[in-house]
Each structure stands twice: as C-alpha cells, then as structure tokens.
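Encode chain A's predicted structure.
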Amino acid sequence: MSILFAILLFSVLIFVHELGHFLAAKASGVQVNEFALFMGPAFFKKQVGETLYSIRCIPFGGYCAMEGEDGESDNPRAFGRAAWWKRLIILAAGAFMNLVIGFLLFTIVYAPTEQFVVPVVSYVEETSALGEGNGLRAGDRILKVDGEKIYVQSDFEMLLTIHGGEVHDFLVERNGEKVLLEDVSTQKREFTNEDGTISSRYGITFTVVDANFWETAGYIWNTGLDTVRIVRLSLQMLFNGQAGVQDLTGPVGIVQQISTVAEQSPSGYAALMNMLYFGGLIAINLAVMNLLPIPALDGGRIVGLLLTTAVETVTKKKINPKYEAYLHGAGMILLLGLMAVIFFKDIFMIFKG
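Encoded structure for chain A:
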C-alpha cells in the first residue's frame, strides 16, 4: 500500500505542476492543444473546445502542450507570441503549484501537533562541551550555526554534521541581545540516561512549547523554508565533493524510502503522516529543482526568456526560437541520461539490499 501511495503521490505532484502551467496558459490567453494525465498511449480522449484532454496508460507524469511552445507558430495565441511577462508567469506557475501543495501537506501533518521543540536551550549538562567557556547557556535561542540560519530545532545537529569538525560558531539571542559565540567545542561525550544506559550526545536539551495557531503556522513556514535551504545545501555538497552521484536518488529510490518509513511507523496514522511529510519534502524539492537555470527545466527556460527578451529589446530583432529549442533539447538528453543512471543505481541498491 505504501508503494502504491508513493506512486500516486508522484503522479499527483506532477499533475499539479502541469495544472499550474495549464491554468496560467488559459488565463493568459495562450492556446493549449492538449492537457494529459500520465504518459504513453491514451486510453481516454475528449476534445473540449481547442484543448484535447487525455488520460494515458503509464501512471506517471503528464504534460501541458501549448501551441508554439518549442518553435515558431503563426497562431496569434501561440506561446511564443504572448507578452514576455505572461510567458514568465506560465513557466513559473508549475513550480508555484508544487510549493503550494508542499506547504499544504506540511499543514496537514503539523496542524494536529500539540507541542513543538524549538531551538531554545533549556538545559546544559555540567560536562557538556557546548557549555564550557564561551559556550551555550540555558535560555539561549540559537539563531545560526556557522552562518547558516536555524529554522527548526533539527537543523542544529544537521548543520553540525554537514560542516564537520569539532569547533563551530553560534549566533544566539541571549537576554534580548544577539551574541556571537566563536570556536565553541561541539564534541559529543558520554552521558548517563534516565534508564541507566550510556549514550554519546551533545549534552544539551531543547525547549518544548505548546502549540497554538501562530506557533503552528510559524513551524510550518519554517519547515518549508528549511526544505528549500536543504536543496541548496545538497547542491553545495555535490559541487564541493561531500556527496557524489552515488548519493543521488530518483523516483525508484524515493518510493523505496517512503515504503521503508511507512513500514517502520508505529501505527497506520503515523505511517500516513510520515508519507505526507515526505510528499511535502518532494513537492518543494521539485519546485526548487525545476527553477534551477538548467536547459530543459522551467528555470532554464525562464533564463532563456529573460535573455532573449533583453536582447530583442536592445537590438529590435527577433531571435529565432529554434536555437533555444536546440539548447533545451540538448539539456533534456543530458537530463534523461542522468535520470537513467540514477534509476539503474536505485534498482541495483534495492536488489543489493
């Protein structure tokens, strides 16, 4: 059931993305030739006015085919003939819809929550390295770790892990003032737990607050912003060598992860909430990744639109759209190649595991 849910989730997210393009195109007066749910051969078609609505056989993806989207067209309602700002809205609408659905899913997950853990230190154990010297104190609200903002409490350990090392800088709010704590030791040490067992940890406890409307709304908003930031951090790790292609995952790997999380959940309700949380993460990731200035993606097309508009405004000459189409075609080939590599890597890891 979790695998079916994950596949359905991907289909919904892609459908919502294409729906954003469709609604923006219709509102802008651009002719939409076909709006399709799923891919492959169509088993249902219905022509309504100028648009063919279809449902296709492969339960994944979908598309919104606009007149003159990838080439010249004499149709006055072609995509390429619309005002540049209308084309910009149409291109960005898909990612916007993914952001909306991402925040909506986070709202569903966190609305019932009765308490939240916030990045405010409530207690520092005596032998904690973080409390020594110019370290953390009870009551400190941690604002940044090594210059990176703390959106939610879980960012604390995540950022320490990503940046590595045993010494870090903290920006905290202490007694109403911002205080920079430099070169704070963050060594984990062994502490005795309440049940008598020994564990290695930082030795600090964070504050738990009761949920209310503003606390919940703020937590949802910060979780969304944190998800956007995680995409940027992940790309940084790829470029600086902290991560490689082996660390990337695609739809197959994500479906496997969602399935694993669901199976490890203590109840059916918890499994559903965990899968919806994953859905929010994926939706916002799709939005951000799709807006990257990479040919074939909406972000690449937006950059191309802005550049060609600027050049045409200065030179008063129209640039042949086929050149941009060639660029996006090449980008699509490279993107599909990367997706194929990740797909087979995920399949191999499943069978290996």
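The first helix runs from residue 2 to 28.
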